[in-house]
Automatic annotation (TrEMBL):
InterPro entries: ABC_Transporter_SBP, ABC_transptr_periplasmic_BD. Residues 1-26 form the signal peptide. This is Iron complex transport system substrate-binding protein. Belongs to the bacterial solute-binding protein 8 family.
Length: 336
């Protein structure tokens, strides 16, 4: 969605004041901060920001950690996060930042944003933004509040499908865009270089002469499993670590499939999204469900008891993705 600057940039205006023997020059000072306004491309549209945001509301753990990784905690009015993500905060490399910045609510809403005096909301489609929730970039724009949409969640025009670029490219795109918006581009580029190095180091351990194990990402669901298509973080966590995502053919991010399809594709490994008690089904309960489901008894991963868990914050787009690739690569190296 294109965004039009809310304020015109200040321009020095010279006024000639007539006097008896000459003119006095009065200059209106330029109050625009250096480097602003800035324009970035977000979800395929140019969005302009007139000034550096100083009162940001963020939604969800990965999105908030992106801001913390860029050193922007002083620019946050607060964040919204479900109670189920408490363990993710406890394990976060930015735990001290979570403790410093106010936790506004479990769910983001227009009321929460207004009460915080937000000048920008950073969230994503199905990561806070949603027409059914009544909070969208457009609804915020009408209130004079800027927004930034998590790139992994961008709608791609295929009904409700999301994702417009490979997951790691989405991560790097958001870091660069946020770097420009907040005037911390040098830090953003340092992080990108660091993350690329971590990914390259992990990928270099993957043998070329070995068949890649097939991997099914299991998020949740008993009737229908929620998994990752090629546009969500787990896809590249799997592929860069040396595996093959069995649902790489789905042009979507997080999406539901059928158990029949999982069985037919017979994964060698099941990667489990561990909410660490954030849902009614714990990691242990998820494993027991997978082991005890008669329909899955013939699946290689279940037969061989090949389960590996990563925390939610490492699987959604965020600064924990590169480390997750390294951890999963180490596990896959043990699969023969």
């Amino acid at each position: 969605m294109p965004s039009t600057p809310r304020l015109l940039s200040a321009v020095a205006v010279t006024v000639l004041l007539a006097s008896g023997c000459g003119a006095t020059v009065a200059t209106e000072p330029d109050t625009t901060a250096p480097g602003y306004p800035v324009t970035v491309t977000n979800c395929g549209s140019e969005v302009t920001y007139d000034a550096k945001p100083t009162s940001v509301v963020s939604n969800d753990i990965g999105i908030t950690e992106l801001l913390f990784a860029l050193g922007l905690e002083d620019h946050l009015a607060g964040y919204t996060l479900s109670e189920g993500q408490d363990s993710g905060v406890d394990s976060s490399p930015w735990r001290s930042s979570f403790e410093k910045v106010p936790r506004l609510a479990e769910k983001i809403s227009t009321e929460v944003v207004q009460a915080a005096g937000a000048d920008l909301v950073f969230a994503g489609w199905s990561y806070g933004f949603g027409d059914e929730r009544g909070i969208t970039p457009e609804s915020l724009r009408r209130q004079g509040i800027d927004s930034y949409v998590l790139t992994e969640s961008c709608r791609n025009g295929n009904e409700s499908a999301r994702g417009i670029m490979p997951p790691l490219e989405a991560l790097y795109t958001d870091l660069r865009n946020l770097g420009k918006i907040f005037g911390v581009s040098e830090r953003a580029e340092r992080l990108i270089a660091e993350y690329k190095q971590t990914v390259a180091k992990a990928s270099a351990t993957v043998p070329d002469d070995k068949e890649r194990p097939s991997v099914f990402l299991y998020d949740a669901g008993t009737d229908q499993p929620l998994t990752s298509g090629r546009n969500a973080g787990p896809h590249e966590i799997i592929s860069k670590a040396g595996g093959e995502n069995i649902f790489a053919d789905l042009d979507d991010s997080w999406t539901t499939v059928s158990w029949e399809t999982v069985v037919a594709r017979d994964p060698d490994v099941i990667l489990i999204n561990d909410y660490a008690g954030g849902t009614p089904i714990t990691l242990t309960e998820k494993k027991e469900f997978l082991r005890s489901n008669p329909a899955l008894s013939s699946v290689t991963a279940v037969e061989q008891d090949r389960f590996f868990a990563l925390p939610y914050a490492a699987l959604v787009e965020g600064p924990r993705n590169p480390r997750a690739i390294a951890d999963f690569a180490e596990y896959l190296s043990t699969i023969h």
